[in-house]
Write a structure and sequence with these properties.
The radius of gyration is 24 Å and the shape is globular. The protein contains 17 helices and 13 strands. By secondary structure, it is an alpha/beta fold. The protein has a seven-stranded parallel sheet, sandwiched between helices. Helix 10 (about 220-235) links the parallel strand 8 (about 210-215) and strand 9 (about 245). It folds into two domains: about 5-135 and about 345-410, Rossmann fold (3-Layer(aba) Sandwich); about 140-335, NAD(P)-binding Rossmann-like Domain (Rossmann fold). (2R)-2,3-dihydroxypropanoic acid binds near residues 113 and 115. The site of (2R)-2,3-dihydroxypropanoic acid (DGY) has 6 residues, from loops.
Length: about 400
């Protein structure tokens, strides 16, 4: 750990313990005399995130270790002076940490993620701390990974790849690695927000699939796009496509050949795919999850995949990350990747920039952008050309933070 941090207001009591704890982690400090102190809990992508914080005269203490920080390590990193934190979805940002952040003079926390189920937003709001996330740069990237997993699972890519590498391919056979044809089938989307919609359009347009979606809200734009594509296909003499909104999850599960999960994780959606609902699905359906692991009861899934070898699954997220439920790893009908749906250079650079801009913006006292298009931040030619705003603060309304649009009209 850098010496600067240890010198910041750490009482002698517990210092030794803190030294021992922090010694296991590798840290680096930028702009050690900066006016504000920001803790960044992981290596990030690109340079813009750092320039954004430095331009706001922040001293940046960044943890370079890949290990997930414990609550005690996070508390320790906050110390007695910390204006903001750029943190991760793997960290438990709860009452205890927000209390510590508040006592250290903190005003803002931002996840480097669009999801924020690891953050107790009410606790942050109670302590007057703004919570940022990074929407608007993950949509296509995550949807593309869901498409990749759909094909990888349905066409058995990982099994076939392993077969080849093991030298088992002795010649073409009509019976080898039979998978699922998607053309003309029914696609089920649970959660038709931004990512779900892009995934739906990519699959429906590419494979002429009919779409059935389940969402609290009607998605008129998605419906219009699918219908317009359907009419075009009809004019061209190709298979038409349709869309309808299911009234229940059950109705969707029974109808769909492919089911992809794009809903948020909360108490109402935890284990939404459970044993009973898996049984409603077609025996050779494909299930994809690039949302959050606990949407699926993973033990029930393992059992279901064992009993139904033609049922295929593509998972980017897991119920108890980084662990997998016992048995999952040895199932040939499941394709697993380590939560990398947003892992493209452009997206991760954008996420890093947005998270830093959330923290820098609130520290500077800027208004809140809160508009869907954040390209003005991520594609800005320089940090100076970025809007003077915090791009996405989820509790802006509760905290009564001023909005950029209102301010610019004044
Ligand atoms: C998110 O942003 O919520 C993803 O899970 C990580 O990219």
């Amino acid at each position: 750990m850098h010496n600067h941090w240890l010198s910041i207001g750490v009482s002698s009591c517990g210092l030794q313990l803190r030294r021992t704890l922090m010694a296991r982690l590798q840290w680096r400090t930028f702009n050690s005399n900066g006016r504000h102190r920001v803790v960044v809990t992981k290596p990030l992508v690109g340079e813009n995130w750092l320039e954004t914080l430095l331009a706001a005269d922040c001293r940046v203490d960044q943890c370079l270790s890949e290990r997930i920080l414990s609550r005690a390590e996070l508390r320790d990193a906050i110390g007695s002076r910390c204006d903001g934190v750029v943190g991760q979805l793997t960290e438990p940002w709860d009452e205890e940490l927000f209390r510590a952040l508040k006592s250290a003079g903190g005003k803002v926390y931002s996840n480097v993620a669009v999801g924020f189920d690891n953050v107790d937003v009410s606790a942050a709001t109670r302590h007057g701390i703004a919570v940022g996330n990074t929407p608007g740069v993950l949509t296509e990237t995550t949807a593309e990974m869901a498409v990749a997993l759909t094909f990888a699972a349905g066409r058995r890519l990982v099994e076939a790849d392993a077969f080849m590498r093991a030298g088992k391919y002795k010649g073409w056979l009509p019976t080898m690695f039979l998978g699922k044809l998607f053309y003309g089938k029914t696609l089920g989307i649970i959660g038709a927000g931004r990512i779900g919609s892009v995934y739906a359009l990519t699959m429906a347009r590419g494979c002429h699939m009919d779409v059935v979606y389940y969402d609290q809200f009607q998605n008129e734009q998605l419906e219009r796009k699918v219908r317009e594509t359907g009419s075009l296909y009809q004019q061209l003499g190709e298979r038409c496509i349709s869309i309808r909104r299911a009234e229940t999850v059950e109705e969707l599960l029974e109808a769909a050949d492919v089911v992809s999960l794009h809903t948020v994780l909360d108490a109402s959606t935890r284990h939404m795919i459970n044993n009973e609902r898996l049984r409603l699905m077609k025996k050779d359906a494909v299930l994809v999850n690039c949302g959050r692991g606990p949407l699926i009861d993973e033990r029930a899934l393992v059992q279901h995949c064992r009993e139904h070898p033609d049922f295929r699954v593509g998972l980017d997220v897991f119920e108890n990350e980084p662990k997998m439920a016992p048995g999952l790893a040895s199932l040939p009908n499941v394709v697993v990747v380590p939560h990398i749906a947003s892992a493209t250079v452009w997206t991760r650079t954008g996420m890093s920039t947005l998270a830093a801009a959330n923290v820098a913006g609130i520290i500077r006292g800027d208004p809140v952008w809160n508009q869907p298009d954040v390209l003005a931040f991520v594609d800005a030619p320089s940090v100076a050309a970025m809007p003077r705003a915090a791009p996405s603060i989820v509790n802006a309304k509760e905290l009564g933070l001023p909005q950029y649009k209102q301010m610019s009209r004044l």
